[in-house]
Design goal:
Elements: H1 2-63, H2 68-81, H3 87-108, H4 112-116, H5 118-153, H6 157-163, H7 177-180
Helix pairs in contact: 1-2, 1-5, 2-3
Amino acid sequence: MRGANFLMFVMLIIGAVVFWGISMYNRLVKKRNHVEDGWSGIDVQLKRRHDLIPNIVNVVKKYAEHEQETLEKVIHLRNAAQGRHTPGQQSEDEQKLSHALSGLMVQVEAYPDLKANSNFIDLQQQLQKVEDDIQYARRYYNGAVREYNTAVQSFPSNMVANKYDFREAEFFELENPKHAENPEVNL
């Protein structure tokens, strides 16, 4: 009778460990799927942005023919950003594109007729909406990455993560980290 109780106890412990391992694995899969879903949301918004840029460039071309170099740079960076990259590479490409678009919008200030053009105003509003949507998608994605990475790194779930090759995900940042640093002021 004593041996049967001990065997039952060992079986119960083994069953608990197996159940824990399965639930930990499923939790990691769920979190990884949230990361992939978040990246899909960013990808959709970036595609909307990339599709909008040629329209903006074409409207600006009509008014600002001597800004050709800037327009070509924006198109070149848009094409580079459309490639399939890791989130880190995509962040870098999108930062360059954002900087070029900002430069284009600054140059547009020199053309009052263009700023008053209804097509340009509509495109500018669409671009602002897309930029806002990218920020929302980025926040969701980075939150999912944070939760997933915490699960991958934390004990005891890291044992299951290491065994089944769950790797940390990359964050997606559009801001330049140098912009977040305090400026140096010399008086």
